Automatic annotation (TrEMBL):
InterPro entries reported in the protein's UniProt record: Ig-like_dom (IPR007110), Ig-like_dom_sf (IPR036179), Ig-like_fold (IPR013783), Ig_sub (IPR003599)
UniProt-recorded name of the protein: FCRL2 protein
Disordered, as annotated region: 90-116
Sequence ranges assigned to domain Ig-like in this UniProt record: 37-121
Composition skew (Basic and acidic residues), residue ranges: 90-108
Annotated gene: Fcrl2_7
Top-level division of the source organism's lineage: Eukaryota
Organism of this sequence: Emberiza fucata
Length: 123
């Protein structure tokens, strides 16, 4: 379901094949509510966030619950700097300065959920 599916619904059907009589049910109101994001988690490839110097690291953000549109942002060690948007963050050639804790935030406008930090180690 999406928020725009809210509305009034009814159904029609034949009551009799002989009389070809249509009947319509009473209308019911369906209201779809948004669900704030929760259960935000991070996955790393390679696993456990350990990557060799100059190798590629991909972090993925997953949301267990929440209705969209979802908006992702990536942050490093509490820095206010935005590292990226979208469900994935890719570091092509990791360097020593890429080690540290990464977080993913998901927002749906008025609600924000944040992942636990993932410790990345460049070996």
């Amino acid at each position: 379901l999406q928020l725009n599916h809210s509305g009034h619904y009814s159904c029609k059907g034949y009551v009799s094949h002989v009389l070809l009589q249509w009947k319509e049910s009473e209308k019911v109101t369906v209201t779809v509510h948004s669900v704030p994001p929760s259960g935000v988690s991070l996955l790393a490839q390679p696993s456990r966030g350990q990557v060799a110097l100059r190798d590629r690291l991909v972090l993925s953000c997953a949301v267990a619950m929440g209705t969209g549109p979802l908006s992702f942002s990536w942050h490093w060690e509490g820095s206010g700097a935005l590292l990226g948007t979208g469900p994935h963050l890719e570091l092509q050639h990791t360097g020593d300065k890429d080690s540290g804790q990464y977080r993913c935030r998901d927002s749906t406008g008025d609600s924000v959920a944040e992942s636990d930090p993932l410790n990345v180690t460049v070996l």
